[in-house]
Write a structure and sequence with these properties.
With 258 residues, this protein is an alpha+beta fold. It folds into 2 domains: 90 residues; 152 residues, Heat Shock Protein 90 (2-Layer Sandwich), CATH 3.30.565. Helices cover 47% and strands 18% of the residues. A 5-stranded mixed sheet has the order 2-4-5-7-6. A two-stranded antiparallel sheet has the order 1-3. Helix 2 packs parallel to helix 5 and helix 6 packs antiparallel against helix 7.
């Protein structure tokens, strides 16, 4: 489409920005401009990447295993792993930035506006269920980073399940102190799957950079980005898992009370 950035343009830009950000992390004025541009690039790059990945998965579902078109689509899908790593590395390079562009919003509206995630879940033959409590607190967040964390969580959940499984997203209010966090009121977000679960021996390591229990998917940075996004917003993330039964992540974000 005319006016839209090409994949090659985005790859060149994202690689250059990643290096520049790391070199200029301590320059407040220049760094602020770079981070602003980088956030836009990440957004555009992420949606293009999801479109490519989704189309390749759809083609593989429609073609016989081993056919030319199937193998071509599989090659495209494998190539997106490297692109994901570039995107995720840039996000990690940005993690030291001061929080900017905080917006007051409803977390459920933020989730519901994400149409791409519905398509990804459907392409895997799975379902996305939502259970929202009434009169939820608002939050004050960097929307793009919380949205990206949400997408990472849901896609991880879907990839752990066989077709027909359900990812359930629940949102409640939570009143009361949590560990050493300052706030006493939170929005509690649960993302639960019916997948294969995570071995208890590796469960403590899942938020480490480049650690992944999934050989066929991802780069091991997705959950690190989720963890960092939650911490950057003075929140908390917990995980419960049982082999053969599934995994539940629980995120607490401080409520915005005005």
């Amino acid at each position: 489409m005319s006016g839209q950035p090409s994949i090659d343009d985005l790859l060149e830009t994202i690689s250059s920005l990643s290096q520049t950000i790391m070199e200029m992390q301590h320059d407040a004025n220049i760094g602020r401009e770079i981070r602003s541009v980088a956030s836009v690039v990440i957004h555009d790059f992420g949606y293009l990447l999801s479109a490519i990945e989704g189309s390749a998965e759809l083609l593989m579902d429609q073609e016989p295993n081993g056919s030319y078109r199937y193998n071509t689509a599989k090659g495209i899908l494998n190539a997106t792993k490297g692109l994901k790593e570039m995107r995720d590395c840039l996000m990690l390079a940005l993690r030291g930035r001061p929080k900017r562009y905080l917006e007051i919003c409803s977390i459920t509206d933020l989730f519901d506006e994400d149409e791409m995630i519905y398509e990804r879940v459907k392409l895997h033959g799975c379902y996305l269920a939502k259970e929202y409590a009434e009169d939820l607190y608002q939050v004050k967040v960097e929307k793009e980073h919380i949205r990206n964390a949400y997408e990472n969580m849901v896609i991880n959940a879907v990839q752990s399940m066989v077709p027909g499984g359900t990812v359930t997203v629940r949102v409640y209010n939570h009143d009361g102190k949590l560990d050493n966090l300052d706030s006493c009121k939170f929005v509690r977000i649960e993302i639960e799957d019916e997948g294969k679960g995570i071995d208890q021996e590796i469960l403590p390591r899942i938020f480490e950079p480049f650690f992944s229990a999934k050989d066929e998917y991802g780069t091991g940075l997705g959950l690190t980005i989720v963890y960092q996004a939650v911490k950057d917003h003075n929140g908390k993330i917990d995980v419960e898992s049982e082999l053969g039964k599934g995994t539940k992540f629980t995120i607490y974000l401080p409520a915005y009370l005005g």
